Amino acid sequence: MPTNSAPGSAPEVEYHPFPVKTSLPFSAAVRVGHLLYVSGQMGTNETGTQIVAGGIEAETRQTLANMRAILERHGSSLSRVVKCTVMMADMSEWPAMNRVYVEHFPEHLPARSAFGCSGLALGGRVEIECIATVDR
Questions:
Q1: Of 81, 38, 40, nearest to 59 (Cα)?
Q2: 8 Å CB contact between 86 and 114
Q3: Is 70 inside any structural domain?
């Protein structure tokens, strides 16, 4: 649903909700012009209510699968990601997270920032947000 599309004004903005009804107070993604901003994704199951079992590697794999699904639903892909921000509950798990992360970006590595935090929602180990390009 565009909120600004007048010629010569600021870029068109579209807010994209999650595909299932949720009480989360944010959009799954927001498109501004040719950029898609994807909210932080976690290694949650298909209902988004539980973190997958298996530790940091399984969570990272699921996090990136969740991100890929949002990107593809809105006309982008992991190959079009230009920036990621990675938040981790324990930076000592960085090498294991990074091994899985790089598998998902075989063509190019996006710009990236990362930081440790004192806790993530649902007791997760990793959360990743991204910015990707889209056609329109």
A1: 40
A2: yes
A3: yes
Q: Tokens 């903005």 identify what position?
A: 13
Encode pLDDT of 33-89 as tens digits.
Answer: 999 999 999 999 887 789 999 999 999 999 999 999 999 999 999 999 999 999 999
Output the 3-class SS for 83-123.
EEEEEECCHHHHHHHHHHHHHCCCCCCCEEEEEECCCCHHH
**pTM for this model (two decimals):** 0.89
Q: Quickly count: other Cβ atoms within 10 Å of residue 99's Cβ.
A: 12
- Cβ neighbours of residue 34 closer than 8 Å, sequence gap 6 or more: 133, 134, 135, 136
Residues 98, 100, 106, 109: is their CA dihedral positive or negative? negative
pLDDT of res. 7: 59
- For residue 2, being part of any structural domain is answered with no
Domains in the chain: how many in total? 1
Cβ pair 37, 128 in contact under 8 A: no
